[in-house]
Structures are given as C-alpha cells and as structure tokens.
TrEMBL record:
Source organism phylogeny: Bacteria, Candidatus Giovannoniibacteriota
Protein name: Uncharacterized protein
Organism: Candidatus Giovannonibacteria bacterium RIFCSPLOWO2_01_FULL_46_13
Length: 219
C-alpha cells in the first residue's frame, strides 16, 4: 500500500532533519549513509530492529492520519432534533438512514453544552473487533466521543463532500455512550444520497474491515 500525504510529509521532514544533523556534524555522515542503505535494501529492517527476544513486534491496528478541531457550543445537544432522516436540498445535514440500534440507544440522549475538543482520526490497518481497537486507543476514556462531535463533522460534509470523514462508502467509526452509559460503536458512512448511522455493541462479532477510519480523543 502506498504512502498517504501525511506519511509522505513526515518522511520528508525526518529525512530533511537527518540531513541537517549531518551538516551540523552531529551525526557521522558515513554511518547515516550506511544505515539508510540498509533500510533501502531490506524491507523487513524495521521489524528486525524492533524485535524483542527474537519475536516480531506486534503490528499496530491503527495508523494515525490527522486531527480535527471541533468548536465549542453554548446550547445543549438534543439528538432527536439533529439526527433526522432528510435528504432534501435544504437539509442541514443529509441523512438517509438511522439504524434501529442507533435510534434506540441514542435518539433519546441529550448532551450538555460542549467545551470544544480535538479529535484524532486513524486508518484501521487490518480487520479487527472493537475491543482491540478500544484497547489500542488507550481504553474507553480515550476512545469515547460524543454525538455533538459526530454531528459537527457531518455538518462540515453535509452533502457528502470531501473532508475528514470518509465519503467512499467505508465506515467512520466512533465510540459513544448510549442512554444507559454503555459505550457503543457508531458507524457513520456516506450512502450516496445521505449519511447512514448504525450502532453496534462492542461485542459485535462481525468487527470492522481494514481501511475504515477510527475517531478518538487526541489527548
């Protein structure tokens, strides 16, 4: 799989930084060249370098892509007033489907005024269930997001335009507490004429396919 824009930018920054260090004579240039040559010639170099006790390091599920700031709001967020099926031209957010679980667990929920936040979004590198994803995020506290944050991101892409949310039919995965304060997985995906919102218990045996995108707390 080819590198994305963020990865290319990071690689360029690291490479440039290393060259600056050799220019300042903080690194031996011949040693740097030898190391870079090894990395170039051996595609498994990183795995071998990071191996512990001769066993390969477990590959991470999530690959960071970026962050997005979500603005504060002074009003309460009433879910049933926001998440309504409407694909009309004047819809504030085009929504074409609300799953039964989402309706049952979330439409009765009201969230207080929102102080603003920064969310991190990551690419799911391989197929996974929810529990390992939440664990890698740092536990439920780090994984938990809100309905207000989801809706704000949907507003920015009200008609499926390009943005931080995937709009290619792949799920954007959020973890939100429902009415009984149980953490649930929420799938937000563009269905062609509107957003689809579907909720699952964390024990859902189907899991998620690679290539989906996971949102969580940035700190």
């Amino acid at each position: 799989m080819g590198a994305n824009t963020a990865q290319k930018a990071r690689l360029l920054d690291l490479t440039t930084g290393m060259l600056e260090l050799t220019r300042d004579e903080k690194r031996d240039i011949e040693q740097v060249c030898s190391m870079l040559q090894i990395i170039k010639d051996d595609p498994d170099f990183a795995k071998r370098l990071l191996a512990k006790n001769g066993e390969p390091v477990t590959e991470l599920l999530l690959e960071p892509v970026g962050t997005i700031a979500v603005s504060a709001t002074a009003e309460r967020f009433v879910a049933k007033d926001k998440f309504m099926i409407d694909t009309g031209r004047k819809a504030l957010v085009k929504i074409s489907y609300l799953g039964d679980n989402f309706t049952e667990w979330f439409l009765g929920k009201t969230e207080g005024p929102f102080a603003g936040s920064t969310l991190r979004y990551s690419n799911l590198r391989k197929d996974s269930l929810d529990v390992p994803i939440v664990s890698e995020l740092g536990g439920e506290e780090k994984a938990e997001t809100t309905l207000a944050e989801i809706y704000t991101l949907m507003e920015l892409q009200r008609d499926g335009r390009v943005g931080v949310l995937l709009n290619n039919g792949y799920a954007n995965i959020f973890y939100v507490r429902g009415g009984v304060l149980v953490l649930r997985a929420v799938s937000v995906l563009w269905g062609g004429d509107g957003w689809n919102l579907i909720a699952y218990p964390l024990g859902n045996p189907r899991g998620w396919d690679a290539g989906r995108q996971v949102f969580s707390r940035n700190s």
